[in-house]
Amino acid sequence: MSYTLCRWRALATRAGAQLPLQAPRDNRGHLLVSPPSGGLLLASSAAGGGSLAAAPARGLCCSVARASIMPAWQLQSYGGLDALRYNANTPFPIIVYPNEVVVRVHASSLNPIDAAMSRGYGARVLNTMRDPLRMNPRDSELPLVLGRDCSGVIMECGVSVKHFRPGDEVWLALPPWKQGTFAEFVVASANEVAHRPLRLSHEEAASIPYVALTAWSALVTTGGLNNKTARGKRVLILGGSGGVGTFAVQLLKAWGAHVTATCSEDARPLLAGLGADHTLDYRHRDLPERARALSPFDLVLDGVGGSLEQWALRCLRPWTSAKYVTLVTPLLLNADRYGLGDGMVKSGLTLGRRVLSSFYSGVHYRWGFFTPNGPALDDIAELVNNKKIRPVVEKVLPFQDVLKGLHAMERGHARGKTVVTIASAAR
What we know:
By secondary structure, the protein is of the alpha/beta class. Helices cover about 30% and strands about 20% of the residues. The chain has 13 helices and 18 strands. It has helices at about 5-15, 110-120, 125-130, 200-205, 210-220, 245-255, 270-275, 285-295, 310, 330-340, 340-360, 375-385, 400-410, and strands at about 40-45, 50-55, 70-75, 85-90, 100-110, 145, 150-155, 170-175, 185-190, 195, 235-240, 260-265, 280, 300, 325, 365, 395-400, 415-420. The strands form four sheets. Strands 5, 7, 8, 9, 10, 17 and 18 form a seven-stranded mixed β-sheet that branches. Helix 5 crosses helix 6 and helix 10 (about 330-340) packs antiparallel against helix 11 (about 340-360). It is globular and about 60 Å long. It starts with a helix and ends in a 6-residue tail after the last strand.
């Protein structure tokens, strides 16, 4: 389907117009645009007839300018959040590969990586992923649309997409080297998309994909847990009240694990309500002793990093394939600081040293990373529909307050996710 037709259908849906079976065309097959009177011309359904009927425009415009732009929040330079700007004239994304879909974003969520990327975090590695042959000039990815996950509706599908069709309500999480979801429309690969759980609103659904797949990658892909192996396992979560932590608690409890989580004192009721068996105040001076009193653990999920790693490793059950999985790694930071090659070597040496040191103590040390995974989102949707997992949304903001929400998120102490509503604001 052509880009013009794709955009025509998207605009028609945004305006609330009833879509005909085919886009309006004249006798020569050209797409029709709004007439000077403001009415939308629709082709007659009479066989062989080329007559046209005028219908109210209802705010719909198919001019060249309106057919190629959309509102979005764009990063103009790597100057922090102050370089983030609202742009009502952002180019409309188009399908490039046959396995891609265009999604109209109804809601998106804020994640710490959005604020970090605004300062250039991971730019060297991410630019290599965007342009492995280095054919484009430096900073060609700018302006960059931030946002990593969303809930919305599919508008168009590439020719090889079989699992989805226009009108499907979906959720998705995008890798950080792609243009993001703080926009009215986004393009994603079909394997990054899944049908969203319909028992949730778009705002509730948007709070889950990125943190869910981060936790899924750490616990399942790296940690080796699943709905069969997790039952009876003892897991310690460092940083339990954030987005990743609240999801990990619910996922592990749905699989029958015993969960201990660290958090601030005022967040303990939240985690207890999500099913955590024990909660520990991370600001308490004897936190290591309290954690060891509840040990040994079969897995530690570290979403905080820093000095916690020194004592948390000793809480694992030795010589039983117990794993320490941390989401706080120096990989991207080293590449930014020392260059791609030297940074990768330094990161490899750091990881190797920690792996060997932990192995001599009888435990396994691993790094965990977010990985886009549509099939995993299908499994998560089933858990949500079965009421095993619920969204933890701290607040919902209008689209124009994205920058305000990111500043608040940077100040820390989140109790779940912050979500922004996009579709209604873009009309």
